[in-house]
Amino acid sequence: MSAAAVERSHDRPLTAEAARIMKRLPGYRVEIIGDQIIVSPPADGPHADVLTDLMAPFMAAGLHGTESRLVQGVGLWLPTGAEDYAIPDLSLVDADYRDHYIENNCYDPVCFRMVLEVTSGNFRTDLRTKVAAYAEAKIPVYVIVDRKHQRLHVLTEPAGSEYANHRVHAPGETVALPDSLGAKVTVDVEQIIQTGQS
Question: What count of other Cβ atoms lies within 10 Å of the Cβ of residue 69?
Fold first, then answer.
């Protein structure tokens, strides 16, 4: 794997403002994507419940071990702007991800195998803004649990600012995630969507 260098300025007005917001609003997620600060309120219980349920098949498949790690809320440095970073709900990373630390609690996209977002009130960010950002970061697999529209999106093959392959799955389907994750993982869409309902 190789990573392109991300140019960063020493003058960080957005990062400084993001830090001020985090101090004023503990528990809120603050991200910078496309040179814009995005602030999300703390997740509700069903959102957290979905993440816990989704971790189970990854753990059962052995994806949290010596080759890869399943981590929540870890920063991903983005190539979309000098200060850009996102904090996916759940990520599958190479086990040596700590060797890829960049700054601001963020890691180089080269060590991410998958990112997963569970939508909340700001679902447009996950369905639009982050699609482009994660594709530009060349994240191989992006999974979205769309609670508003009751769908599961699996995006693969990043190409520029989009994914060449975008499959949408409805309740009643069982989805096999790409083998590129390192093991066979299947998701019961109906069960995950039901868990995520408020």
Answer: 20
